[in-house]
From TrEMBL:
Residues 7-39 form the Tc1-like transposase DDE domain. GO terms for molecular function: nucleic acid binding. This is Tc1-like transposase DDE domain-containing protein. The lineage of its organism: Bacteria, Pseudomonadati, Planctomycetota, Planctomycetia, Gemmatales. Pfam families: DDE_3. It comes from Gemmata obscuriglobus.
């Protein structure tokens, strides 16, 4: 792959095998956790599930602003990528 990329003058950028910040569903999961579960006692599974469902039902209203901030496709870019491959 590296040889073929060099022939075609393609610069390969090596990304981590997994980065939860690049995965949009992980961002949604983090928002759900913060808004419905984190720091709150849920005595049973039914109330735990109800809290999550309530948060999901309010995503486009009460949680629209934080959701919009999380679901951007703007990522940090680096000018000198040679530092990342060594």
């Amino acid at each position: 792959m590296q040889a073929r990329a060099a022939e075609l003058s393609i610069t390969l950028l090596y990304l981590p095998s997994y980065s939860h910040n690049l995965n949009l569903i992980e961002r949604l999961r983090r928002l759900l956790k913060r808004r419905s579960v984190y720091g709150k006692y849920r005595p049973n599974f039914a109330t735990f599930r109800a809290a999550i469902e309530d948060t999901l039902s309010q995503l486009t209203t009460a949680h629209a602003e934080p959701l919009a901030a999380l679901m951007t496709l703007q990522f940090q870019e680096f000018e000198d990528v040679s530092l990342l491959t060594e």
